[in-house]
Design brief:
The protein is of the alpha/beta class. It is built from twelve helices and 13 strands. The chain is about 35% helix and about 15% strand. A seven-stranded mixed sheet has the order 3-4-2-1-5-6-7, with helices on one face. A six-stranded parallel sheet has the order 10-9-8-11-12-13, sandwiched between helices.
Length: about 350
C-alpha cells in the first residue's frame, strides 16, 4: 500500500543532494537515507528541512521547512526537534525519531508535547533506549538501527591483508587526542610502516561548523605534527569517496564516546570488511562483535595491544575481515524503512 509520508527536520540546512555530494552528519544522513528508502518502496515522501529551495532527489520531494509542514499524512516522522512534535496534526500515525542520548527529552518543552501526542519514540539500539527512563512521556520505545548506506555494501573479500593502515572517522573532539597519545607512544613504534588516516573534521556540521572547528583546531594541528609517526590528516569525504578510501584500510580505531547512540563510522567500516578496536563505551559493543569482527576492550593498554595484533597478524586480520563481510552488512536502509512502516 502506498503511503503519504511527511518527514521534518529543524536542524542544519541540507537536502538529498548533500548526502551524496558532501560530508554530512550522522543524523542528517540517516534522515535522508530513510526518506530515499521509503520512496524506493513506492511511498510518496515529502522531506521538510532547512534546505534553500525545493528539489526532487531520488524520488523524494525536498521542501523548505519555512513553507510549513502539511496537516495530513499517513505517516509523519518528526526528527529530533521539540518544535516538530505536534506538527502534521491530522497524520494517521506520528513518530518521533531521536539520535542523541535521550535525557534531554525530560525538559518540559519536550515532555508536555510527548504527553499530548504520545508518539512512539524511535531509538537506534538498546544502549540508546536505556538513556530514557521508563516514566518519561511518549508512546512506545521501538528500536530501529540505522541502515548501512549503499556505497559501503560492495566491498569484496580480500585474499591478502592490506598494509598497516588504520583509520579514524569521527569528530576530532571525540577522543582523537587520546588516540594520538596511544598511537605515538605505543602503536606506531610497534608496527613498522603503520599509518593512521584521520578523516574527521567540522565540515559535516554545516552551518554549525565554526564553533566545533575552533575547539578541534588544536587536536588537528597536533595530528598534522605527527606525520613522522605515520599520521595522515585527510579531512572528511562524501560517502562514495570515503568508501573507496576504506577499501584500502586495515583497521578502524575509535575509543567511543558517551554521546554515541549508533556510530555510523563503526557500522560502515565493519560493512566494508575493516575490523575495529573500540572501548566498551555507550553503543560500541553493539557495533563491533568482540573477538569476531574486532575487539571491544577496557582501557588504553588493552586498546593498544589489540590494535597492534590486528595491524601485525595477517591471519588474524583475514579471519576478522571475513567475519565483518559475513555478519555486519545485512541491516540496510530498506529494512529500516519496513520497520518504520510498521510503527503504530
Amino acid at each position: 500500500m502506498t503511503l503519504v509520508v511527511v518527514m521534518a527536520d529543524d536542524g542544519i540546512a541540507f537536502d538529498g543532494r548533500t548526502k551524496d555530494q558532501a560530508p554530512l552528519g550522522g543524523a542528517e544522513t540517516a534522515f535522508a537515507e530513510l526518506a530515499e528508502a521509503l520512496a524506493a518502496r513506492g511511498h510518496k515522501v515529502g522531506a521538510y528541512t532547512r534546505c534553500a529551495q525545493p528539489i526532487a532527489w531520488k524520488g523524494v520531494d525536498w521542501i523548505p521547512l519555512d513553507t510549513g509542514v502539511p496537516e495530513e499524512a499517513d505517516l509523519y516522522i518528526a526528527n529530533r526537534s521539540w518544535k516538530l512534535i505536534l506538527s502534521c496534526r491530522q497524520a494517521k500515525r506520528a513518530v518521533f525519531w531521536i539520535h542523541n542520548p535521550a535525557r534531554y527529552l525530560l525538559k518540559f518543552r519536550y515532555q508536555w508535547r510527548l504527553l499530548k501526542r504520545r508518539p512512539p519514540i524511535v531509538f537506534s539500539g538498546p544502549n540508546h533506549r536505556s538513556t530514557y527512563p521508563s516514566w518519561g512521556a511518549g508512546g512506545g520505545r521501538p528500536i530501529i538501527p540505522y541502515g548501512i548506506s549503499a556505497p559501503f555494501l560492495g566491498a569484496l573479500e580480500r585474499s591478502e591483508a592490506p598494509p598497516p593502515r588504520a583509520v579514524f572517522l569521527s569528530n576530532p573532539l571525540r577522543s582523537l587526542d587520546w588516540l594520538l597519545d596511544l598511537w605515538g607512544s605505543r602503536i606506531a613504534p610497534a608496527v613498522a610502516g603503520a599509518e593512521l588516516h584521520v578523516f574527521g573534521g567540522a565540515a559535516v556540521y554545516g552551518d554549525a561548523a565554526a564553533a566545533k572547528s575552533d575547539r578541534a583546531l588544536p587536536v588537528m594541528e597536533r595530528a598534522r605534527a605527527m606525520a613522522q609517526l605515520g599520521v595522515r590528516v585527510r579531512g572528511p569525504l562524501g560517502k562514495s569517496e570515503l568508501a573507496a578510501e576504506l577499501a584500502k584500510m586495515r583497521l578502524f580505531l575509535y575509543r567511543g564516546d558517551v554521546g554515541e547512540t549508533f556510530c555510523n563510522a563503526a557500522a560502515e567500516t565493519q560493512a566494508m570488511g575493516v575490523p575495529g578496536v573500540v572501548e566498551n563505551i555507550a553503543c560500541m559493543s553493539e557495533r563491533i562483535r568482540d573477538g569476531a569482527t574486532g575487539f571491544v576492550v577496557a582501557g588504553a593498554d588493552d586498546f593498544a595491544a589489540h590494535a597492534i595484533r590486528l595491524l601485525r597478524d595477517d591471519a588474524l586480520w583475514l579471519e576478522h575481515h571475513r567475519n565483518c563481510l559475513k555478519l555486519q552488512r545485512s541491516w540496510t536502509w530498506a529494512r529500516a524503512a519496513v520497520e518504520f512502516e510498521r510503527l503504530k
